[in-house]
Amino acid sequence: MSVLFKGPKKQRRTAPDDPEEFRLTLVEHLEDLRNTLIRCICILAASWFVGWELTKPLYQSMTDRMTIAIKMVLPPGVTYTEAFFHGPDAFLIKLKLSFFIGLIPAFPLLMLQLWKFIEPALKPSERAPVRKVAPYTLILFATGAGFAWWIMPAAMRWFASYVMEFPHTNVVQEAGTLAFFVLKMMLAFGIAFQLPLVVYILGAIGLLKAETLLANWRQAATAIFVISMIVTPSNDPATMLMMAIPLVILFAISVWAVKVTQKRRRAADIAAGIEPEDDLE
Predict the structure, then answer these.
(1) Exposed / middle / buried, residue 35 (Cβ in 10 Å: 0-12, 13-18, 19+)
(2) To which H or E segment does residue 219 belong?
(3) How far is it, in rounded angstroms, from Cα 183 to Cα 55?
(4) Which residue of 26, 107, 137, 234 sits 20 to 30 Å from the alpha carbon of 280, by its own alpha carbon?
(5) Distances from the Cα of 255 to the Cαs of 99, 125, 180, 281, in angstroms?
(6) 175, 82 contact by CB (below 8 A)
(7) d(CA 34, CA 46)
């Protein structure tokens, strides 16, 4: 009798050649989504623990670097100190700071879980470009985060230079604010530097064409500047430009990569006797 009431064997989630061969019910999709979310929560919990252990040395490194940059441009007689304004602040700041510290190395792992979730729904021609550029995700994220770390002292000097316009004042910084700002900038730059990969993947699977991107480069550049203004935590023109200019350069590189890919695909189609969908200029 137990055999009669035994449910159907659950289909293993793999990446078939034809996504139509892998069709799940709504309940199975929800179960798969639940498992993905559980893995993401476990990754965040583990990274949070690591961040908790690393908070003290990393906080010291970040604040020392930013403090030196700020004090370089302060007028004579102006003091700079960090302070807690409430008793529980020290614990709460470490709690939030450890999460942000752990989130930066956890980001690539979270993207990997997202990829595993959507991979079976893609055709081989759509999966191939993603697999090809996947290793560069970590490289570009690290490049963006490293670039943010490199420019932060200059940004802090620019901000602090305006103190001289307000005489007879001192600078009292809430503890943790500088560290949060640096981590948010590193995370924002790391995510923003994924733009070339997104453009390349969309072009490689045929959703975007290099000719279309080149014809609308002004709109694309404007969109990059708007995104940079939204993503940067400080929303100041200097930081926005520091993000937007590298993104424009990376966007141009990705458009070139899409154009090369389209030419190769067209040559392969001609060699195979397949009529190309359209001619490239």
Answers:
(1) middle
(2) helix 217-231
(3) 12
(4) 137
(5) 36, 19, 34, 14
(6) yes
(7) 18
| Model pTM score | 0.70
What is the DSSP-derived secondary structure letter of residue 171?
E
Give the residue among 167, 141, 179, 186 at the shortest CA–CA distance from 77.
Answer: 167
Name residue 81's beta-bridge partners.
172
**Alpha helices (H) in 124-216, listed in sequence order:** 124-160, 177-192, 195-204, 210-215
What are the structural domain ranges in the chain? 20-124+151-176
Residue numbers in the chain where pLDDT is lower than 50: 1-12, 279-281
Backbone angles phi, psi at 81, to 5 degrees: -140, 155
Q: Residue 106: which of 191, 33, 197, 14 has the closest Cα?
A: 191
Q: What are phi and psi for residue 153, nearest 5 degrees?
A: -60, -40
Residue identified by tokens 């195979």 is 272
164-202 pLDDT tens trace: 888 888 888 888 888 888 888 888 888 888 887 887 777
For residue 174, give the H/E element and its range: strand 171-174
Contacts for 192 with CB less than 8 Å, ≥ 6 apart: 144, 227, 228, 231, 243, 247
CA geometry: angle 246, 250, 254, nearest 5 deg:
170
